[in-house]
Amino acid sequence: MQALTPHVYWAQRHGEIYLRVEISDAQSLSIGVEENILHFKGQGHGAKGENEYEFSLEFLKPVKPEVKHKSTQRQVNITVKKQGHVWWDRLTKQEKKPLFLAPDFDRWLDESDAEMELREKEEKINKINIESRVRKDPFLGLKKGFLFMYNLVQFLGYSWIFVNMTVRLFILGQDSFYDTFHTIADVMYFCQMLAIMEVINPAVGLVKTGVMPAFIQVMGRNFILFVIFGTLEDMQNKPVVFFVFYLWSMIEIFRYPFYMLACIDTEWKLLTWLRYTIWMPLYPLGVLAEAVAVIQSIPIFDESKLLSIPLPKAIGFSLSFSYILQLYLVIMFLGLFINFRHLFKQRSRRFRTKKRKAN
Ligand SMILES: CCCCCCCCCCCCC[C@@H](O)CC(=O)SCCNC(=O)CCNC(=O)[C@H](O)C(C)(C)COP(=O)(O)OP(=O)(O)OC[C@H]1O[C@@H](n2cnc3c(N)ncnc32)[C@H](O)[C@@H]1OP(=O)(O)O
């Protein structure tokens, strides 16, 4: 029997070459790559009836020597892996296309379509990986339940503070500034003590965010609340307490419900926008109000010698706490810078992901 050449159809992806050889019920197949040339030999029913068919193809660029093939009732499918992850301009080294070779339009993709197909595949794999990782955590429900309750309690606490202060502002006007501390402090103490969880949660991996920004936030506020307002009675009836508490609660009545919804995999667009936007004016205003409180407390600490550090008798005086407060003022603006940058990053990450999802 004289060997004939079968019809061969080809297509490519970035990493692979697909060949379809038009021989049905192929037998005695011998397929291999040697020195970058594919050699095919086999018996079966092709364009010229039952016969022996063979062909060789020298590839344009290097391919891996191992070849996969599958013979079906209608054809022989061959997959050859490219050495590099590159798109080829044509299949063969020789510029003139062999007569028996043609594009396989069933599998044909141009380069950009193939890239898209690759990206879709990668996204699908990533999604499966994430889903299986999430499914693997047996305590996920418990963790989410705990976070939901934590956020709910904080939300209720801060809502009470915000509503109470707003109502008092409407009824009493500026007079409400002077006794904010006495009406609000207990609930604020409770919420801010509880807020220490916000440092612990990322530290133990319960929420995926940085420990440092949360530490700066919680410790910064607790310093103002417990040290400046808590220890100095003279500070407690100053209007600055109103502004500090009002600015703190204003962000929290949006932040905590946003987290609550996140715990039940729900999102309200307006709430997300508010959570990631209103800190822009509130944060600098909050730091400014806190700085005013610190500055106002300096003469009081100086006068009362409260929290001052006694030095040896020979020196004859003690180290006033006001020095620490002056240092704290500097740290505060450093903290503002760190957290402002962090919040900007969180904002753009959030809205970038959203945009990508929408496309
Ligand atoms: C004595 C020594 C003291 C030393 C310290 C020095 C201090 C310096 C002073 C600092 C100045 C502080 C000033 C400040 O007090 C003034 C004010 O607060 S004014 C009012 C305005 N303030 C704000 O807007 C800030 C509000 N606070 C925050 O936003 C956070 O506390 C902050 C840590 C700054 C940022 O939050 P986070 O990093 O968590 O970002 P995200 O909200 O995007 O969350 C990231 C992902 O984690 C999930 N997450 C987070 N927490 C929870 C939760 N409780 N429950 C459920 N899920 C949570 C969240 O959903 C995100 O997940 P995903 O990405 O999947 O959406």
From TrEMBL:
<dbReference type="InterPro" id="IPR008978">
    <property type="entry name" value="HSP20-like_chaperone"/>
</dbReference>
<dbReference type="InterPro" id="IPR007482">
    <property type="entry name" value="Tyr_Pase-like_PTPLA"/>
</dbReference>
<keyword id="KW-0175">Coiled coil</keyword>
<keyword id="KW-1133">Transmembrane helix</keyword>
<keyword id="KW-0472">Membrane</keyword>
<dbReference type="InterPro" id="IPR007052">
    <property type="entry name" value="CS_dom"/>
</dbReference>
<comment type="function">
    <text>Catalyzes the third of the four reactions of the long-chain fatty acids elongation cycle. This endoplasmic reticulum-bound enzymatic process, allows the addition of two carbons to the chain of long- and very long-chain fatty acids/VLCFAs per cycle. This enzyme catalyzes the dehydration of the 3-hydroxyacyl-CoA intermediate into trans-2,3-enoyl-CoA, within each cycle of fatty acid elongation. Thereby, it participates to the production of VLCFAs of different chain lengths that are involved in multiple biological processes as precursors of membrane lipids and lipid mediators.</text>
</comment>
<dbReference type="GO" id="GO:0102158">
    <property type="term" value="F:very-long-chain (3R)-3-hydroxyacyl-CoA dehydratase activity"/>
</dbReference>
<dbReference type="GO" id="GO:0030148">
    <property type="term" value="P:sphingolipid biosynthetic process"/>
</dbReference>
<keyword id="KW-0443">Lipid metabolism</keyword>
<protein>
    <recommendedName>
        <fullName>Very-long-chain (3R)-3-hydroxyacyl-CoA dehydratase</fullName>
        <ecNumber>4.2.1.134</ecNumber>
    </recommendedName>
</protein>
<keyword id="KW-0256">Endoplasmic reticulum</keyword>
<feature type="domain" description="CS">
    <location>
        <begin position="3"/>
        <end position="92"/>
    </location>
</feature>
<keyword id="KW-0812">Transmembrane</keyword>
<feature type="transmembrane region" description="Helical">
    <location>
        <begin position="276"/>
        <end position="301"/>
    </location>
</feature>
<feature type="transmembrane region" description="Helical">
    <location>
        <begin position="187"/>
        <end position="207"/>
    </location>
</feature>
<feature type="transmembrane region" description="Helical">
    <location>
        <begin position="214"/>
        <end position="232"/>
    </location>
</feature>
<comment type="pathway">
    <text>Lipid metabolism; fatty acid biosynthesis.</text>
</comment>
<dbReference type="Pfam" id="PF04387">
    <property type="entry name" value="PTPLA"/>
</dbReference>
<feature type="transmembrane region" description="Helical">
    <location>
        <begin position="145"/>
        <end position="167"/>
    </location>
</feature>
<comment type="function">
    <text>Catalyzes the third of the four reactions of the long-chain fatty acids elongation cycle. This endoplasmic reticulum-bound enzymatic process, allows the addition of two carbons to the chain of long- and very long-chain fatty acids/VLCFAs per cycle. This enzyme catalyzes the dehydration of the 3-hydroxyacyl-CoA intermediate into trans-2,3-enoyl-CoA, within each cycle of fatty acid elongation. Thereby, it participates in the production of VLCFAs of different chain lengths that are involved in multiple biological processes as precursors of membrane lipids and lipid mediators.</text>
</comment>
<keyword id="KW-0456">Lyase</keyword>
<feature type="transmembrane region" description="Helical">
    <location>
        <begin position="321"/>
        <end position="344"/>
    </location>
</feature>
<dbReference type="GO" id="GO:0042761">
    <property type="term" value="P:very long-chain fatty acid biosynthetic process"/>
</dbReference>
<keyword id="KW-0444">Lipid biosynthesis</keyword>
<keyword id="KW-0276">Fatty acid metabolism</keyword>
<keyword id="KW-0275">Fatty acid biosynthesis</keyword>
<dbReference type="GO" id="GO:0030497">
    <property type="term" value="P:fatty acid elongation"/>
</dbReference>
<comment type="similarity">
    <text>Belongs to the very long-chain fatty acids dehydratase HACD family.</text>
</comment>
<dbReference type="GO" id="GO:0005789">
    <property type="term" value="C:endoplasmic reticulum membrane"/>
</dbReference>
<feature type="transmembrane region" description="Helical">
    <location>
        <begin position="244"/>
        <end position="264"/>
    </location>
</feature>
